Queue: 4 jobs
Job 1
Amino acid sequence: MIIGTAGHIDHGKTALVKALTGVEGDRLKEEKARGITIDLGFAYLPTSQGLTLGFIDVPGHERFVHTMVAGASGIDFAMLTVAADDGIKPQTLEHLSIIDLLGIARGIVVITKKDLTTADCLSKVAADIKALTVGTTLETADVVAVSAITGDGIDALRERLVDAAAKIGQHPADGRFRLAVDRAFTLQGIGVVVTGTVLSGRIEVGNHVRLSPSGLIARVRSIHAQNQPAEFGKAGDRCALNLTGPEISKDAIHRGDVVLDPELHAPTDRIDAVLRILQREEKPISQWFPIRLHHGAAEIGAHIALLGDKPIPPGATTDVQLVLDEPIAAAVPDRFVIRDVSGRRTIGGGKFIDLRPPARKRRTPERQAQRAAMTLDDATKAFSALLAAPPFAVDVSSFARDRALSEKSVEQIKDELAIVTFGTDESAIAVSLKTWQTFATDLKNALGAFHADNPDRQGIGREQLRLMLQPRLSKPSFAVALQKAAESGDIALDGAFVRLSSHQARLSTADEATWQSIAPLLGGDERFRPPRVRDIAEVIDHSEHDVRRLFKLAGRAGWVDEIAHDHFFLRGTVQEMLATAIDISRKSEAGFFTAADLRDRLSNGRKVAIQILEFFDRHGVTLRKGDMRTLNKHRLDLFGALVHSSAQTSGGESSPVGRSDFKSEWGSEPALGGFDSHSPPPVISRKR
């Protein structure tokens, strides 16, 4: 159990710790010379029950309250001291407020210097303390009187602390590892050492960790837990870690950094929080109010962005957004304290509820519902509530990371809630079973209605479909939900379009007959430089208008793409050309290539090669820089799955990349209308 002292300057905190443990808390020359605690002091008390009590002695001077907050953030048990001959003082009030704001619910109030006053004075001080703690986390705490000089009451107090430690028991260590750094120093022959309280999880010698927010990588060379050499440290332990790494030095580590599991490294500078303003504040908190934010051992400048229409009055509790001057490493539901920018008074505090809030649309009903869900401390209850709030989907990985949950805890949540997940292990999206059933049914109904109204179209655009469905998932969630829906085989994903698997775009009987005569002209060896509309019209003896109209219908069906004006390519050919561009890009330096590179592979002339690349440019498939181009990997599925196992060219070369490499991230197959893009075309004369 970690015990933290609190109380006004010169109220006997350090003397009390020494009387209990025999260890001098003040360790700095300045502290001994001035007789006050400036920095955190530490002492340990082994017990006969096999427990070790760790004491954090904090400064009582108002100038060092920020250090007191750093020490109080990792404690299990508060020991508030009040001198019998001095009574309640300003830092007594402030330290009690900090204990209350940090949610430290276990503690005891110790009246020190019992030997310097009378029984009547002790009774009055005890009564004042009881009145002071009403409404705080220490309202039911016992009040005891001791003398560190005579030893009166010390043994009884020590026994109370041991009993409290036994009742608290072991901290659960199933979360991922986090340790808040309050000191960093170098020891001769050992190297860099950091100390702090383990906030969650477990660490072992040899483990790799990250320093956050800097992101430096380190390895744990050795561990001291509760002031003893150990092979591991766990949640609730006071630990010293000997860290080693290429960039690890004393100067690279700062008080307020967090040593953590590498999976948790995701610093943030914008946090939604529940904030309580102390009743003794004289003025309401207005929009963009500047503050000093204290979290763990970190102290950072920040501003308060109000999520309501009015300033926050003294004594009120409400949701706010904290916008930080610099990013910090945090977790939900960590506690925090805010003080004024001068560092003279504590204003309030609360807990973090969302580490990735939006900067805009912060007051919408949807965000209010999300914040209400995230306010719940219990991870399973919070996850369940989020599934019931818009957008009715949760990124499992982000949720687990921001709450420092272990894989075991995540699996327990999944099992208990019977959720449906889709996506990758790195970015799995979860919805409730009810939400998924509604989504899947409405998706099929929407597609069926669209096909009935538009029988000649390939399918419906993804974004248009997303906006038609309820619940309305976010774009990323919708994308992976479609992948999940396609696994049933009832839904087909054709690049940017979605259709029922049973749907095929249909033409009228006359148009179908005409298309049967046009399609072969676009395939075969000339597929990379097919004839234009006017040439085709001449060959099949139709008007240009009719041929152009039919191509527009074929384009809507997803059979062809208009590369340039009146110049149409079969969709399969477009996929093959894209596969060739991918192969060229992979073989080129830094992935860049020219129009000449594509021309040489396709043997279709510079003009047509440029038209093809400009077409890809317009659709964001290629990115142009001067005369050079590179591929946009996020748009390679725009024209559906690449269906050719190799990119054949008239020059005899082929792409070494197999079909699986080109498969669309949607796992779909294109609709080509039943025509083979390699069908040999009849001899055709072209007008130039």
Job 2
Amino acid sequence: MRFALWGRAALSALLASLIACACSGEGAVAQEPAPAPAGSAHDQPGVTDAGHAFLKPAGWTLIRRDAVVILEAPEAGSRVALVDARAKDADAAVAEAWGLYQSEVALDPITSVPVANQGGWRDGRRFLYRTTAASARRLSAQAMRSGDRWVVRIEDLTNAVSGKRSADLQTIREGFLPVGHVRESFAGRKAHRLDAARIEKLKRFVETSMKALEVPGVSIGIVQDGQVLFAGGFGVREQGKPAPVDADTLYLIASNTKPLTTLMLAKLVDEEKLAWDTPVVDALPAFALADADTTRKIQVRHLLCACTGLPYRNLDWEFAAADSPATITFDILARMRPTSAFGATYQYSNPIAAAGGYVGGHAARPDLELGRAYDLTMQDRVFGPLGMRRSTFDFDRAMRGNYARLHGVTPLGDLAVVEPARDRQMHAVRPTGGAWSNVDDLLAYVRMELAGGLLPDGRRYISEKALKARWASQISTGRNSWYGMGLDTDISTGTPILSHGGRMYGFRGDVIWLPEHGVGVVILMNASTGNVLMEAFPRKLLEVLFDGQPEADSMVEAAATADRQQRATSRQAVRYPIGETRAAALAPRYRNAFLGDLRVETTGPQTVFDFGAWKAPVAAREQADGTVEYVVMTASSPFPFVAGVSEGRRTLTIRDAQNTYVFAEAD
């Protein structure tokens, strides 16, 4: 299961810059989940010299060199290497693997962190390497043991390919299995009734995990066969304060908003106000991308399919004013071009998903401003009918009374409250991730999904056809998974798991259901350090439901250890305050045409970057090549700013995976 609003923004800016961690739609509307993700049949199986199984994604090139299998991406120069090693431990295996791989990249190791025991592999460690801003690459090596033999997976990728080929990378990771290993499957098995003892196991897992991961508060809900078995919370709304979280506590739920937005679109399909195959330019003539051909191809179904070839792009609205109108979404889209062919590969992109909600709102209420139309349409098509009484897009209303403050890690490794001003920028693109909700409300939504569109009193809320069209595969996200319309489906365990999650600033959360077993869960967390629970809690649920092999606890244990090490590494790497020399090297003001002004203020020892909508002090970090990065000293900080000079003017450059923004010195 994979879903993100902010990618790796939960990690420190240091680690975000160093490590890598995924359309059809032209055919008839399916009423049930597709039997397999689109395109997976074209993946080519193989084995290493030691007999370990791997998959070569379609379009990749296979190169063999003695004990090394190299999988090269369609974009030359990015590779994943699988290396059989004869070493006695993980450190020696990685050293041997790099030698056999014969990389020309200079290695600058940072640290190594543990990896959970999963998929037949044991005692894994992931090795992280520092790269320069100029290289725009991500390097990692993961050593894993099977029996008494070690194998190493090296990922040597450009940032752009890492962002663009996430589904292919997921296929490689999932498809790499030890010799003789048989995947655990729950196909054809009946789930246990979640009695008091099994519910208690899940509760203990949450309590133990949140302490290990330093998450202040977690709210969860569990439903089976239409009955709510548990709805409650553990911990507190804000670190250091006594007010507890519970099932009524509101969280800013990030991309958990997406399936609610597509539910609204499905209601409008039922009402014949639009159709899944309606061209978006017909529904909203002002809709346009920088690429005219792709603009013409996009139908309503494609707005939340992650299949259009548009890349991940968040910084345009992360740095915008908090009161930006809904039209900022379309301003961003007008300068976006696909980086892969339409329908060719999964690329998760928030601006076009936000447009999906606004297109729906406009279809329902064409006489209103786009944002207002969306809000009212969501209220009368989704929140109201489902009884989601507390869910809202109104930040002022949400941030009164029982709501969770969000927490992230600073570059110094401290857990801190996320600056509230940063949350509000989500409002302008709210159909993709700006809803506030709680466990009680989201359980009502999950119960309706499990009931095929029926409400608890037996009334039909939506047709099953329109509801389940959202489930159908639009694009593959891995060997055994796909993305529909704002929904993930994973069949790797032999039983379909539908879900969507959210990651942003200091929030992590999931809505999950198993349609074959009538089971659904909601988990909401108020800290980015709970990232691993996005997969570990669903895994624990499977273990409890089917007496599955124990893996979830190992996932949390490894993640908690890794997080402590990464935070310590980040703390050692930054210089804060930056010092007089570094402060003097900065221009007083910079400007980027898309992200706006960046003002530099120095008072005493502290230097502050002021972006207008929010501001924060900065630290400095020097790279191996002497380049200086400036890191914003805030919880869940954005990517670092790299200092440089262009055409005689000082610059600060910030990059995500596929986009580069240069702030140039301004007068």
Job 3
Amino acid sequence: MTTTQYQIRKVGVIGAGVMGAAIAAHLANVGIPSLLLDIVPPDETKDRDVVARTGLEKALKSKPAAFYTKRSAQLVTIGNIEDNLQALAEVDWIIEAVVERLDIKQALYDRLEKILTPQTIISSNTSGLPAHMLIEGRGPSFRANFLITHFFNPVRYMPLLELVPTADTNPALLPFMRQFGTEVLGKGVVICKDTPNFIANRIGVYGFLSTIQRAIDEGYTVGEVDTILGPSMGRPKSAVFRTADLSGLDTLVHVADNLYQNAPEDPWRETFKVPEVVHQMVSEGRLGEKSGQGFYKRVKQPGSPSTILALNLKTLEYSASEKVRYPSIGAARNYDDPDQRILTILNGDDRASVLARETTADSLIYAATLAPNIASNIVAVDEAMRWGFNFDLGSFEVWDLLLKNPSTLEKTFEGRELPELVRRVREQGQGTFYIDSAGQRQYFDFTKNIYKPVPVPTGNITLPALKSANRTVHKNESATLIDMGDGVACLEFHTKMNSIDEGIIEMIHYAVEEGPKQFRALVVGNDAADFSAGANLFLVLMGARQGAWAMIENAINGLQQANQRLKYSPIPVVAAPTGRALGGGCEIIMHCNHTRALAESYIGLVEVGVGVIPAGGGCKELLLRQGADIEHQKAGKTGGPFTPSRKAFETIALATVSTSAVEAQELRFLRKTDRLSVNRAVLLRDAKADAIKLAEAQANGQWQPAKPQDMLLPGPGARLVLEQQVDNLLLTGKVSEHDAVVARHLARVLTGGNCSPLAPLSEQQVLDLEREAFLSLCGMEKTQDRMQAILMTGKPLRN
């Protein structure tokens, strides 16, 4: 068949259930319109689109949110497959996400085949039905344009997208969909062989079922299993049973049954016989989160916090989940590094270590035995497990951890034979599945017994690779300046949670002072999960408790001036936030000339939660972004000087944090001109490209460093208005007394203190107001109590 030039401008999604509606929502997130269709209910005459409408409404209300912002839902058009099927002739990609029954899918394909164009991509979101079975009876064009696109739930947040082609899939389609999935949808794309349940569910469901069987046989409780096999073993907090509840026990049974029926040659086929306890739960409607009870049950009683009950696997009754403690887990929690946590558990001698070793051996042997049958390489297996289940390490990365620690390997696999693939990597490879060669990560190719470079997205940039290539320009314990090439440097923070300390402030000054001597642009970013959790609260609290006011003032002034240096840098500065950028982290972003943010960035000025106000220039910058500068005021664009103060007050006083980078633009933490990336793997690449564009614009006279902006603020009269609002909230019990104290200080800063509404204020004057309010609040016992509560419990104190 001739190569087809594919493009995706509009998509049709058939099936408005949880997955279909969520897929349509994520398409809207990245700006792609879709037509969401479902059936017409029997005897329905008034609202023939009711099923699709209900699906979209549920997506709009879902938690966690399916949409970056609810405005995006305008890109989703609803309909039904009786009246609107012909409209699918106008879309570029049709995603089938209907019920997991082969006969229903094939009947739908029969109807679709009559309206498809030669360029229409058709895919199924099936979680396990083999692709070759789905296309039985279809014509050449349909077969050439068909593949499986298996999204994971929740679609917006789970990185994994499994692509499963058939022998008839057009060779041009797979690379196109991989590129589209990576660059446009922001997914971690894994190519799977056409085997039952593909890669992630094949290994993941085996691991779950083997674990639950061991729990039943050896008397482990639901709570014990999830405590043992959670973060201490490099897995998410939901661990095993909570993950099953989130996915749905009916889904688990369906996947397991599908594997049992369609994988007769699997050596561990009998493991996929679902235990009777799970069958009974499903028959009773205990399906997990969606039915309100599964392995866990949340009980809400009026006037008191909800209680989490756990299922007794023997009696099927619920009881309070008791906290369990084991020496090995206690020791593992002392490490931030997942490798060290896992080794600590596996090397232990308590009940937790026994289960960890048994289940680890089960899953690793299964992965190493099945990998050549279900995947083209070990990288696909590891990426599927990390992206599909949020594991810290993939199966072969855990194998490497054990291969590098022979005593742990022996203890974990005592009495068991190592799989042939493991023996081969020890005898014909270099002893591990991954090696580093000249700063490049390589994997063991089991088809040729040689090492090959690990595939990465085009242009992928990682800071560890740059540092290993001797690109470090300057560093201290808190931050590093790295040469990214092409005249661009990257300022990387690497404190715990990238909290801002003296070292980071020192490096900001260095980067802005020395950077222009050898670079034409600067990126502020890192490879961590979070951009920055803000200022080092522990140091602030200790200083306040010791009365070290000069030290605190110097630290705040240092952050203010460092941010001002970023803002007025002689070369362009581009922020590259991902994850959380809170408090001081948000302030750093707001002072950069441009931002390239990961779409999943949670940005906000949250200082009021610990009893202070933003004092690194956050108040000042939000006022400017709301139009408090003289130019906007004189042009009458903001409705007078009070409007910017009021809007900034509403945002900061509520400690508002964006639920996405798109919402951060709506809140003005990001500019409308800032750019977004949806894939973490290419964020630094994209930030560097933006930096180069600005540098080239500067060279052409089309970009200039920022100039100071004076502001017109409304003064004491407006402050009284805001304070009256605070007093009303206090009288109705909606805020605490100390909330009101903090809000009054905030109101004073945002209205300009004692200024005249006709007299311009400089940026420095507003910074002085910020610093004064911050120091005053730090001296209050209730603020110090709030800081201590956050540090001790991670939860805000309402005092």
Job 4
Amino acid sequence: MRIRIYRLFICIMGLLFLVTGEVAAKGKKKQEVKADAPAPQKRSVKYDRLFRGKKVETKKGLLTIHKIGAKLYFELPMNLLNREFLLGTTVSEISNNGNVLVGQKASEPLHVKFNIIDSTLYMQEVTNGTRPNVYADEVGMQQAVAKSTIIPLMQAFKIAAYNRDTTTVVFDVTEMFLGDNKRMDPFDPYGKTAAFGLLTRKATLNKSLSYLDSFKAFEDNISICSVLTYHEVLTRKNTGYRHAEQVTMKVNRSMILLPEKEDMMRWRLADPRVGYFVSSRVHMGIDVDRSTRTYFMHRWNLEPSDMEKFKRGELVEPVKPIVFYVDNTFPASWKNAIHEGIRTWNKAFERIGFKNAVQSKDFPRDDAEFDPDNLKYSCVRYAPIGVENAMGPSWVDPRTGEIMNASVFVYHDIVKLVNEMRFVQTAQLDERVRTPKLSDEVMHESLRYIIAHEVGHCLGLMHNMAASAAFPADSLRSAAFTRKYGTTPSIMDYARYNYIAQPGDKGVGLTPPDLGVYDYYAIEVGYRPVPEAKNAEEELRVVQSWIAAKSGDPMYRYGKQQVYDEYDPSALTEDLSDDAVKAGTYGIKNLQYILKNMNGWLDAEDRDYTYRIDMYRGIANQFAGYLKNALLNVGGYYLNESFVGDGRTAFSVLPKEKQKRAAIFVMEQLRTLDWIDAPEVTKNLTVGTPKSEILVKKFAKELVNTKRVSLGYYRDPKSYSPKEYLDDIYAHVWASTIKGRNLTKAERTLQYEVVCAILKRIQIPNHRLGDGKKRRQTQVETLAKEINPVLPVQGFGFQYYVTNLSNDNQAHLWHGLLIRVQKLMESRLNGGSRETRSHYGFLLEKIEDVRNWK
């Protein structure tokens, strides 16, 4: 009984415990709910308190922007955390456009994303041009790469509030748009005020003179305008130059949302045999025994709107065409040429199946969303500044190379450049250009070409400086040939106008083509869809088959722009044809013809000689260009991107005959240069050193340089040797002396400058340049060129250096030449005119004085 009573007691107590526990639990739950319940209310209170009683301006779009008093806040949807953006800087207005152009995007856009860690919101920099962008294929390697290349934090923001349902986060971004952020520097380091890069700029933001101006929010982007004032100081190293000014500018910061991974354009792998701007990533793979770099083209994302029609060979419009908006501030007479230049590229896109791929529109006047300073819009802008240039930069999605925005800037004085080029290069044949003010017809021809060239850059194309070398010189005197091909196979070359055509040539084309053969080919390589390819590697194999089909044809050859120094005479700027000597000979005849007739053509319109001063300077510069182009053949070598089966070697020395002919041409021109002084023209122009003396001095120093010849001879013993080159200098610089003739002024100047250059060349101590301290530090030059071994002949981008070393130990040859010259002049000292004898006597004393120095 006791046991039963005890068990009953235990059961009752257990039941009571369970009931009590359940009641306690219920009570506890109620208390927990009570504890959490105020949170949304607190959030609501914090969010509301941010705006309560304050002057607030709000814009809603991709994200919501609030201006509360003098502060700016972003309200970022939580679903945009970890989404990637481009954040770019554009100048909308400025007090001095020599610092940066209106509409210019001088600094690369930032590739960023936002993330919340603990209670702080961070902006992270996803990619950066100076930081390796690495990827791998295998899972384990990918994990290692991820740990080794984490995304750095760029800026921290204190979270001000969440909205009521915590779907957005609010943070203060005032400092981001009013701070002195050098990563979003609005200044152009190569602007006119900075002497196109020669001056060093220090610009300090004055926050007391800076403020937030306006802001906009749209479905896929936002824009923030700030007025920023800087104290700018420009200096030049090792000089006393200093320039200071206050610069105020309105700066637009645009932020656009980039596509998600599944919507990204498939990159097209690049091939260095076709000139595209590229981005790259480092690949950690095991298919080869090293890490490699993957290069991909910069190009627009053009997809056929109807793939089935496209496959059948029908023209289709792209899903998203390339649209350029043309500035309404351009002179009215320029507008048609600009639109035509843009749309010219449709011819190339039609060849690969697209219609209306490239479109142009004037700035819309009734579209509230349109903003030319926004990254969303690609524009052609007018720059009212005295610079003779135009340019076509673009911005890309760094993950794929997709061009997101492009701009063309047309500086006002591009018309001055056009006028001078047309006169100096074509006035021998084209009566329309013999005037200080070109007709609308002529200007239209030239502007259309300039715009098409710059839009080519906006499509991703680099300069192709080898294009014009595909044409024989005499072909450019043929009416039929020039009507078909223009002056070059590519408008991406710097082959301007037909300076080869002679006064009697009838019907010859004088301008570059609308599009050249290479331009059609390059667009195919970059943009023709390959629907059968499953990935970028399969696509590359197809694209390279197109390239292989053109291998060996000079019309399709790509030659890089040569920066710092020029090695390949077939890939030069401002040249025509495959023969610099023949082209220069024709060009010089034309310059002499123009100079002879210039007064008769211009007396009526150029009453104060202002125009002739510029044109005379242009004639001298054009002549110098002809000599430079020829002289670069001496010791020159052809450079190619070479693949197995191409039929082209990466490096080949010019044939001896071509080098020798070019050297003799230059020396003969310098010996007979008196014509360029043209007293009947120059007597009314500015007073200065005769052009003949300036040019002879310049090229005499270039003649006495065997580094290039030594390099070529080192690589190919059958080529032009330094000894043969010096023998030719002796035979042609002293040709009149050898024959016992009196010397012209040009010949005297040439001989003097060559002798001085030889003395410096063989490093006789008391003839070195500079003071005693500098003399002690002087080193004998023995290398063909200061070489950066990291940059080989082959690869992507510009041609900077040639990775090749060669000793230039020719001092004994120069010394031998000096002795030959000395003995020759001694033998002629008592013959010829008084001026000739005095010249020999002076040079002999100079040589003897140096040789006898102790």
